[in-house]
């Protein structure tokens, strides 16, 4: 993998975010020429402190077509992580903000296609799955989301629908223009630099405080998926590579 990324012009949108910054660090380690664009509404410059002298950092809002065009110029690969996002509380209280992800995705994909970017890897979400499936204790698979089966698409609130439309839009660019692409459905990530309100961090804090038993929400029967951020980065890089060699658009989940 290291040889592939060496000196490769690579853009990470939302690269100052929790996951984005870890992806940027890995790409730098692999020798890529990395550009980051972030509006710093949720991302933080200090997340990039270990590599700030090795990457090109741009500040801008990707709702603007001109900003997107400047960001993707001369890039070979785009990892598109920029989005309005947060935990369950954010999704429920910021529906309009989550809906604007539709604008960001279309702007980035259009700019990437016009700039002849070779491949785009899109950060999707487990929220694209039908809510009735999410409530079941089953292992989610890629094909559990379908536009051909009645009820196969019933995503989780505005955020989930926007992410699903992002996947569909990227596939459309593949079908019409041949843009190499992949979408990766992230499940809840945790690790260094994640928000202190994260469930895993809260569990650790309760353990430090010797809270016994732990206070939990719900009836105690619910299940959650947690993925360590380094595993997410590994899978994202592999998805980008896989999307570059297969003739069809690739969708993966983590």
Topology:
Blueprint: H1 2-5, E1 9-13, H2 18-29, E2 33-38, E3 56-59, H3 65-72, E4 77-80, H4 88-93, H5 95-99, H6 101-114, E5 119-125, H7 131-134, H8 157-177, E6 180-186, E7 188-190, H9 199-208, E8 226-228, H10 229-245, E9 250-253
Parallel strand pairs: 1-2, 1-4, 2-3, 4-5, 5-6, 6-9, 7-8
Task: Please give a structural write-up.
This protein has 254 residues and is α/β, with parallel strands linked by helices. It has one domain (2-190, 227-253): 3-Layer(aba) Sandwich (Rossmann fold). The protein has helices spanning 2-5, 18-29, 65-72, 88-93, 95-99, 101-114, 131-134, 157-177, 199-208, 229-245, and strands at residues 9-13, 33-38, 56-59, 77-80, 119-125, 180-186, 188-190, 226-228, 250-253. The chain has a seven-stranded parallel β-sheet with strand order 3-2-1-4-5-6-9, with helices on both faces. β7, α9 (199-208) and β8 form a beta-alpha-beta unit. α3 packs across α6 (101-114) and α6 runs parallel beside α8. The longest helix has 21 residues, at 157-177. The two termini are 19 Å apart.
Task: Based on the model shown, name its key terms.
7-stranded parallel beta sheet; two-stranded parallel sheet; 10 helices; 254 residues; alpha/beta; globular
Order of helices and strands: HEHEEHEHHHEHHEEHEHE
Q: What structural class should be given to the helix and strand makeup?
A: alpha/beta
| CATH top level assignment | Alpha Beta
In CATH, the architecture is 3-Layer(aba) Sandwich
How many helical elements? Answer: 10
User: For this structure, what is the CATH homologous superfamily?
Assistant: NAD(P)-binding Rossmann-like Domain
Total strands: the figure is: 9
**What is the CATH T-level topology?**
Rossmann fold
Question: What is the overall silhouette?
Answer: globular
Number of domains: 1
């Amino acid at each position: 993998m290291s040889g592939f990324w060496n000196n490769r012009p690579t853009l990470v949108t939302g690269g100052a975010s929790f996951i984005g910054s870890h992806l940027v660090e890995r790409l730098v380690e692999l020798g890529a020429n990395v550009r980051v664009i972030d509006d710093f509404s949720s991302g933080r410059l200090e997340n990039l402190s270990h590599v700030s002298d090795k990457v090109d950092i741009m500040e801008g809002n990707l709702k603007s077509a001109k900003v997107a065009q400047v960001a993707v110029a001369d890039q070979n690969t785009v990892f598109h992580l920029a989005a309005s996002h947060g935990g369950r509380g954010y999704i429920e209280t910021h529906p309009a903000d989550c809906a604007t992800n539709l604008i960001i995705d279309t702007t980035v994909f259009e700019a990437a296609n016009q700039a002849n970017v070779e491949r785009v890897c899109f950060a999707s979400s487990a929220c694209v799955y039908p809510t009735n499936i999410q409530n079941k204790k089953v292992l989610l698979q890629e094909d559990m989301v379908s536009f051909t089966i009645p009820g196969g698409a019933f995503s989780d609130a505005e955020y989930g629908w926007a992410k699903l439309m992002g996947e569909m839009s990227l596939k459309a660019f593949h079908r019409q223009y041949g843009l190499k692409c992949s979408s990766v459905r992230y499940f809840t990530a945790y690790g260094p630099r994640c928000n202190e309100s994260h469930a895993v961090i809260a569990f650790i804090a309760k353990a430090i405080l010797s809270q016994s038993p732990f206070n939990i929400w719900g009836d105690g029967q619910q299940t959650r998926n947690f993925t360590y951020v380094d595993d997410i980065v590994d899978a994202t890089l592999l998805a980008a590579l896989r999307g570059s060699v297969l003739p069809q658009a690739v969708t993966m989940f983590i």
